[in-house]
Design brief:
The structure holds two protein chains of two kinds.
Chain A lengths: L6 H23 L16 H8 L1 H37 L3 H15 L2 H14 L6 H25 L4 H8 L4 H29 L3 H6 L7 H11 L3 H28 L4
Chain B lengths: L2 E12 L2 E12 L3 E5 L6 H9 L6 E6 L2 E2 L10 E4 L11 H11 L4 H14 L15 H13 L5 E5 L7 H18 L2 E6 L2 H7 L2 E6 L2 E6 L1 H6 L4 H6 L4 E10 L4 E5 L7 E4 L9 E6 L5 E3 L9 E13 L3 E9 L2 E8 L15 E7 L4 E2 L49 H4 L1
Parallel strand pairs in B: 3-8, 3-9, 6-7, 7-8
Antiparallel strand pairs in B: 1-2, 1-4, 4-5, 9-10, 11-12, 11-14, 12-13, 14-20, 15-19, 16-17, 16-19, 17-18
Helix pairs in contact in B: 2-3, 2-4, 3-4
Classes of the chains: A mainly alpha, B alpha+beta.
Chain lengths: 263, 417
């Protein structure tokens, strides 16, 4: 009999450790009286209160609001464009489409800093003031690729004869699209949209380069606060709140999946 | 029989390839009409033009006298059963079947009633609320048929509907298809590459090759009286004899001289050929008799000495490949209508006689040498010089040479499935 190797177990525990211990520390510290988080001084909800009353707290909420608005707009834009691109790529094959595919694919492997700088130079050269608009445009630019690939992968598993079947049974092009095509590839579109939203929410490098006055997103705000070395506990508490929201959303979606009949 | 569906000089070209080349075809009301041919022969394109998914470059398609060439697929009274079934994966069987009826904005009670009737016909009541992913191949198949039939089309198109099923299921479904056809009584147009399928369910078959119709006829006509070497070799199996007519005996029979054969052949002259005409004969393996003793002389019978080269026992019959000349083997079938051991055993290397009636050969109108590739020939076996008593099963070997007719083996597996 061979003994099972303990290597996988060690790796698993190491991964879990490095993954979750920092998060746990962050949550714990958000309740720590010690504002530097070096040692436990006692339990407090002070930082959570400050989040709602102090000027810095208000700045954080404002940046969160901007982040969500930017995320929503970028998601909307990139989902529409990306879905269209995926359809075009899937349906038509030509040399031009190969170039199209390369163009879509390249942003995935391009360093973010490069995209950021090029966008910055571009916005400057067309004299576009930096702000919400430039951030949304920048986010759409890099999110489109992810949406396209998510939808494309769904389309590749899709049996096109289903569309012909719908036409054959009397459906118009419009009905075929909305009753058959969209419902079937919706999971792909939703996955792409979710990915775009996530990427937009926590993008730092590109946003940092193309943001302007009054358009500070949460990652930029947090970075600024860390740089000034103050209000670390506030960052901990807003992060904990976001974490809680994420977990609740995850739990919600799991429950939602369960109520649906399995395919 | 009433002329119902008509292709009139239909041509469709994809790039440089003429997928369908000037096809004129008539299909009667209420029959099962098969379009049979190897893959790439244009049969699917023909079907897709009928469904409306492709537009012909030239020519017209008529349904009950009405020109439907330019009608969109969603207004044609023609429905299709797709090869991949193409069921809507996000809908249950019931919703799939109801799809077309809902588009017609029928009252819900009517829809439910019609769908229930269909579910009963295909015996799928118990699975009505399942999604396609939960169904077996046969169930998907039946659902796809029901989804198309519920709309009461004038014509039902079936695109290789059984190709994705395993053998047993295929046989059962083809039987079920004929039952369904008997029940609904509408015209079925059935596309397949499987000759057995086509033979067993069709009223008429059109054999297609390279975008052209080679022959249209009943299964028996296609099998017994093939017009071309392609039809003869693609449907079932056959042997070709090429020769020249040396003598017309009377109004019915003629003598044919075949190079490499020591004797002239006598055959039925249904094409009324005259002396000096070259002729191509097709003789089916089962038309031959094989025996160890020389058959009694008969002026209307051909007898050739032969040597057994290969034997494949198939239970109800045995297929022999015997050589009748240097590098020339023919396929012969012997039915086992008696208990095997009560028949005199014929084995490898035996000197035998093959004989056939003059009426049993058939003259082809068209002959192409490459159609010989379609014939079933085993690879030249090893150990053919071993005396009859000490034989072993022949082993197909990679090093074996090309078969007797000098052509590549061309084992068309598809044609014998």
């Amino acid at each position: 009999m061979t003994r099972r190797s303990i290597f996988p177990a060690i790796v698993t525990w190491l991964v879990l450790f490095f993954f979750y211990v920092p998060i746990i520390l962050l949550v714990v510290n958000s309740f720590n009286l010690n504002s530097y988080g070096t040692a436990w001084k006692g339990f407090t909800l002070k930082w959570y209160t400050q989040l709602f009353v102090s000027d810095e707290g208000r700045a954080i909420w404002r940046s969160l609001y901007i982040t969500v608005v930017v995320g929503a707009l970028a998601t909307l834009g990139s989902t529409i464009l990306g879905t269209c691109a995926a359809f075009a790529l899937h349906r038509y094959k030509s040399t031009l489409q190969n170039i199209h595919y390369t163009l879509i694919y390249t942003p995935l492997v391009l360093p973010e800093i490069l995209i950021g700088i090029s966008l910055l130079i571009f916005f400057a050269s067309i004299h576009m003031p930096l702000g919400m608009t430039s951030i949304v445009l920048a986010h759409i630019t890099f999110c489109v690729s992810y949406v396209t690939l998510a939808v494309l992968s769904r389309l590749q598993d899709f049996d096109m004869s289903v569309l012909e079947a719908a036409r054959d049974l009397g459906a118009s092009n419009w009905t075929t699209t909305w009753k058959v095509l969209v419902p079937i590839i919706l999971p792909g579109i939703l996955a792409g949209a979710l990915l775009a939203f996530t990427l937009s929410i926590d993008d730092f490098v590109i946003t940092f380069l193309v943001n302007g006055p009054g358009s500070t997103t949460l990652p930029i705000q947090i970075q600024g606060m860390i740089k000034r070395g103050r209000s670390m506990p506030l960052i901990n508490s807003i992060s904990s709140i976001l974490l809680a929201i994420t977990f609740l959303a995850l739990l919600g979606s799991k429950l939602l999946m369960k109520t649906r009949p399995k395919k | 029989m009433e002329e119902f569906l008509k292709f009139d000089g239909v041509t469709k070209q994809f790039g440089h390839l003429k997928a369908v080349d000037d096809v004129t075809l008539t299909i009667n009301r209420g029959e099962i009409f098969s379009i049979l041919g190897p893959s790439g022969c244009g049969k699917t394109t023909l079907l897709r033009m009928l469904a409306g998914f492709e537009a012909p470059d030239t020519g017209r398609i008529l349904l009950a006298g009405e020109d439907i060439t330019d009608q969109a697929p969603n207004v044609r009274k023609i429905n299709t059963v797709f090869q991949t079934y193409a069921l809507f994966p996000h809908m249950t069987v019931r919703e799939n079947i109801a799809f077309g009826l809902k588009l017609r904005k029928l009252p819900k009670a009517t829809i439910d009633q019609e769908v229930d009737k269909m579910l009963a016909m295909i015996q799928m009541e118990a699975h009505a609320d399942k999604k396609p992913a939960q169904l077996s191949g046969g169930q998907k198949q039946r659902s796809a048929i029901a989804r198309a039939l519920v709309l009461k089309p004038s014509v039902l198109l079936l695109d290789e509907p059984l190709a994705a099923l395993d053998l047993k299921l295929r046989q059962r479904m083809s039987l079920e298809l004929s039952l369904i056809h008997d029940e609904v009584g509408i015209t079925f147009v059935y596309v397949t590459h499987d000759q057995n399928e086509a033979m067993s369910i069709s009223d008429h078959i059109a054999v297609m090759q390279n975008g052209k119709i080679e022959q249209v006829g009943t299964p028996a006509e296609i099998y017994e009286a093939p017009k071309s070497s392609f039809v003869a070799a693609f449907i079932g199996d056959t042997n070709f004899f090429d020769g020249t007519i040396t003598c017309v005996l009377d109004s019915e029979y003629c003598e044919v001289e075949v190079p490499d054969l020591s004797k002239k052949l006598i055959c039925f002259n249904d094409k009324k050929l005259v002396q000096g005409d070259s002729v191509h004969l097709s003789i089916r393996p089962e038309k031959f008799s094989i025996s160890l003793d020389r058959p009694a002389e008969n002026p209307r019978q051909n007898v050739l000495p032969a040597k057994v080269e290969d034997i494949v026992y198939q239970g109800d019959h045995t297929r022999y490949w015997v050589s009748i000349a240097e590098d020339w083997r023919v396929a012969v079938t012997r039915q086992h209508n008696r208990f095997l051991l009560d028949q005199r055993r014929i084995t490898w290397g035996d000197q035998v006689f093959i004989s056939w009636q003059a009426d049993d050969s058939f003259m082809l109108e068209q002959y192409r040498e490459k159609d010989e590739d379609l014939l079933q020939m085993p690879p030249q076996n090893v150990g053919e010089e071993v005396p009859g008593a000490a034989v072993t099963a022949p082993e197909p070997s990679d090093t074996s040479v090309a078969p007797a007719d000098g052509q590549a083996t061309g084992q068309e597996e598809a044609s014998q499935q």
